[in-house]
Amino acid sequence: MKISYTISRRDFIKSGVVLTAGFPFLQSCQSMSNRDESDELFAIFREPPGKAKPFVRWWWNGDKLTAKEILRELDVMNDAGIGGVEINPIAFPGGDDLGIPSMQWASPEWIEMVKVALKGAEERGMICDIIVGSGWPFGAEFLTGDERSQLMTLTSQKVKGPEKINLKVADILKEASPSIHSKYEGADSEIYSLCLAPVQMETFVPPINLPFENGEVITVTIPDGEYILYALVKVTGFQAVINGAPGAAGPVLNHYNPTAIEKFLNYMSDKIFPELKGLKGFRALFCDSMELEGANWCPDFIDEYKRRNGYDISPYLPYILYKVGQMGQPVEGAVITQTSGTAKEEIARVRYDFFVTCMDMVRDRFLEPYTQWCNRHGFQSRVQPYGREFHPLEASLKVDIPECETWLWSNDSNPELDFVKRPTYTNVNKFVSSAVHLSGKNIVSCEEITNTSAVFNATLERIKITSDQSNTSGVTHSILHGFNYSPVETPFPGWVRYGTFFNERNPWWPFFKLWAAYKTRLSAILMETDFFADIAVLHPLADMWSIHGPQRDPFPELLYPAYQYKVWEAIHRNGNSCDYTSEAIIQQSKAENGFLKYNRRAYHTLLLIEVESMQPATAEALATFVKNGGKILFIGKEPHKSSGLTDYRANDEKVRQTIADMKQNYSSRVFTLPAPTDNIEGWFQNIQQQCDIKPYMVIDHPNPFISQIRHVAKGKDLYFVTNCSTDQRLVIKARFPDSKGQPWLWDAETGERSRYPGTSGKNSTLTIDLSPATSKLIVFDEHTRNKDVPALPEEPSGGMVLTGWNVRMEHIDGTVENRAFPALFDLSKDESTRSFAGYLFYETRIDEKTESFTRIDLGRVFGVSEVTLNGERLGCRWYGRHLYDIPDHLAKAPNKTLQVKICTTVGNYLKSTPSNREGYGWTRWQGWQPIGMLGPVKLLV
After folding, report:
1. When comparing pLDDT for 4 and 733, which is higher?
2. How much is the pTM?
3. Tens of pLDDT along 616-647?
4. Sequence-distant (≥ 6) Cβ neighbours of residue 237 within 8 angstroms
5. Residue 11 confidence (pLDDT) above 80
6. Torsion of CA 328, 334, 337, 342, to 10 degrees
7. Which domains does the chain have, with CATH numbers?
8. Are 863 and 903 contacting, i.e. CB atoms less than 8 angstroms apart?
9. 3-state secondary structure of 270
């Protein structure tokens, strides 16, 4: 286990930057024995180290930098509870640049600004990462020839002979030019080959290569019959760095070319690293999204392919390549050979080999050398290792700090279902986090709150739900997306690369530290404990790659099958937990005493999602697992064939026979089950019962809004349980048959702990009451002891609705307006108030006797609320239910003045201000977002 009771751990605790615990607005249960400092895990939770704080991607917009502004922004971030920055030079987003010139990436003056940032971060106890190059994928103007990314693509047309055809080279090159997101204008294109292939093909035949001479027009002779004429076109330098800063823009690097990779990395290390001597330097060097737009080639690809696979890929290229569109996806509707029979089978297997070879080459030539280069210079590698060119799980094994993505989506259509129908974690999160668990690391980094559709409209509540969902997918540390380098003199809203608007100009920024404190404690505890999983899940990657090719992760054009990323959710919502696995991991695992073990991971059940193809060695490993007491679930389909071309008929028979023998000999532990339909939670609940899969958290009524993860440490079981509903209070009952000790609540907002209310004895059934947007950290502790505490209080009932509100509207543009609202309403529904942004002060008088009322419930609130009663502050709520306790002395006061301050977002204001080009450009397509206190406001008994 990671938690050990040693001097090094104590030193680690003391060296961390301490967060101030406790805020007056926070509710907590009755606190008991909170300061047992011999409990080192709880000590870390109470006073987390700086490395657990959220970091931010710090966009150095256009590299328009000054030392004064760098230090000012470090102070702003540090004061808000941000523990680290990722320096990210990026193209200027537009707006008033105040006449500040851009510095060139890696120039002496730019390096001086990096030194200012490093020294300033060190003085403030903050951590620095830096992106390699700029933008994504990285590249530079100094790359030439085949050092730039290369793509083998094609065009095709149906032809009929005998006849001679004149082909205009310019037309072919134009037709083959990829319709990608970020074109580089200096690309070089050439016809690689011309060939004729059958219109239909049942048995594979190589295409007929047509000789040609370069020129403006190529004449080819078509023999008698109908054919598909393929023109294979090689495009070099076809992609430009997306949002590259000056000096690091230009063509994208060829990630298949080891010489080019070495040149690029050494350019950065030779120019920058020597200048940083004497400074502590960076924690990690970062590589952002690998959106290579279909890049698939390098000068020695043909030879390298043959060395790795044992056969020549050339005859198959016309059948497996395609015309490339956005983000490298195939362009639909092209004229191609229609295959069937053994030809279709053979081409599918070669397609698998081709894409696996691409992944292996990028791994061997870029990913591993990149990590070695980082480590050689004293840094860790931090990479988002996914996309068409990476194995979605195994690539993360090669990185020191693998990173995934969690997005904040627009809630215009249905905010209540938003987090269930479209969860915020992307499909790669579970792959990346599983790889971290398998490799024994503890940081699952995440580019978090990435936001392009709800720009300027992110509330702290939505940020909390989003980051909670991120944690349930396995994330342990957040890199927020992001903080804009933007001088205070810049007109509102400043320089904005993207717009969740983590910025001191945001009205809710003073409250950001509350979320940061919550997130820091949660991250600290997740990084210092072990994620528990009892089930491993294998995806049908070989089948998908054979039929369709790899997808553009983290946003695949195809889900295969359509429900594939819902399976892990159903497992967790039913009280089990899972990791993803791969064929290589399964082959390297040990089967012992009913478990499949890899390093420190152990799974009693392996679930295969519609897997038809696998390597014979994988099938043999499955058989060994079942023989040794393990349990296998085949969902929808069963494995019956091998992947890849070489010796495939013999390998098919090995897979088929191994699976058949396994089913016959161990039928009580091998299950073939139907695929899920709509109710996927109910589907897995039935599987638990049918296959005798024991949940470690037995939930009475699984709910799509409630999920959980389990972590373990010495003497402790930790459960993080979340409700992602924005307006439903949900109550479940749960048993924890495997957990020992007494249950406690650890409050990540305050750093306090308390005995779980209403429990006595061991392994009690807990009532878990989750208000909207609420999460709980429940810890079973074998060592901490204390007396029982009362059961959970009843839901407040009875009550008096308050009406008649005077409202002061303090707009961020400096204007102030006073209004009278007889009834509360959503300000976005009224044209006269919908563009408001800033602070709303609702005030009403209470003249009735209220001695019996103990709480104030604000009802539905969009924003952060603060409440004062007779001038006495009752607290603050930034998410969930806005419920406030009334002190006895105020309840007895004969007359009362209640004031509620609501802090809003700024999106509606910018949407209504076309003259603000930066803000309006992001928000004009968004719907009007709810604003203010909708109520009803009640006094409760």
Report:
1. 733
2. 0.94
3. 999 999 999 999 999 999 999 999 999 999 99
4. 143, 148, 149, 150, 184, 186, 187, 188, 251
5. no
6. 40
7. 145-258+294-359 (no CATH), 535-691 (3.40.50), 800-940 (2.60.120.260)
8. yes
9. helix
